[in-house]
Amino acid sequence: MNVATTHALDTYIIRGGEADRARLAIVSRVLFPTTRSLLDRFEPLQDGLLIDAGFGGGDVTFELAARAGPAGRAIGLDADTVKVELARQSAADRGIDNVEFHPVDLLDAWPAGDAALVYIRFVLIYMPDPQQLLARARQALRPGGVLVIEEIDYDGEFCDPPCPAFDRYSELFVQAIQRRGADPFIGRKLVRLLRDAGFASVNSALVQPYGSSGDVKQVQFLTFLGIRDALIQSGLADAAEIAAIARELQVFAQSPQTTVGWPRIFQVWGRV
């Protein structure tokens, strides 16, 4: 009998590859100050092995490489082979030689262990069984090593003034994730999930990007474009509705009279 195997990309609803690189770069710029402050909690990280699991654009991996120093190493893992090649080229262009990028399904065995820190951002929300990934992360950490997670809880996203397209986008995003068996509200559950996975000294913080200009207002529009294929394939929306929502989201984002708040982002960490 054939047994179906779940792979990390099977439930990822956002179109990957080079098309997603611009969106991920914006996400990284918006979150850089709060992610940097989060990583500061776990210094010193110099000379250690630091893993970025599901690295996306690779920006956090490069930040980890800087913190690891010349005698340390940062490793980025991602199932998207196009993103792996782009990140490798970026590392070569920057002359960064203490970083590696590997094409790895995050639910399979990882090519590195005995890590001082494993970082995961915006991955568990797409996992029907997040404990599988938490187990992989725990296996990769040395005694005393820390797992650091930043994850969305999709409740709480907002805009002003009211925008029907914004509300419909949020609704469709949640439905698309749920349709694939994952949890768009996983952020609030992470403290419990880490404790259940055997992590100790579990703690957390909460951030929520918000603004009326710049990068913070671009992500909803770009994310909606990225989930277009998933919405059509799942029958949640047709091409005409998607095009209409996209137009309204773009106009809303470009207006200086509008404000946008992202979903809540839980920062959670625990030690082996």
Overall description:
- It is a single chain.
- This protein has 272 residues and is an alpha/beta fold.
- The protein has nine helices and ten strands.
- It has a seven-stranded mixed beta sheet.
- Strand 1 (49-53), helix 2 (59-68) and strand 2 (73-78) form a beta-alpha-beta unit.
Write the layout of secondary structure elements.
Elements: H1 21-40, E1 49-53, H2 59-68, E2 73-78, H3 81-94, E3 99-103, E4 115-121, H4 130-140, E5 141-153, E6 158-160, H5 164-179, H6 190-196, E7 200-207, E8 210-211, H7 219-226, H8 228-234, H9 239-254, E9 259-261, E10 264-271
Parallel strand pairs: 1-2, 1-4, 2-3, 4-5
Antiparallel strand pairs: 5-10, 6-9, 7-10, 8-9
Structural features:
single chain; 272 residues; Rossmann fold; three-stranded antiparallel β-sheet; 10 strands; 40% helix; globular; disordered N terminus
Counting DSSP H or I runs of 4 or more residues, the number of helices is 9
Structural class: alpha/beta
Cα-based radius of gyration, to the nearest Å: 18 Å
CA-based shape: globular
Q: Got a strand count?
A: 10
Please give the domain count. Answer: 1
By CATH, the superfamily comes out as Vaccinia Virus protein VP39
Structure in a nutshell:
This protein is an alpha/beta fold and 272 residues long.
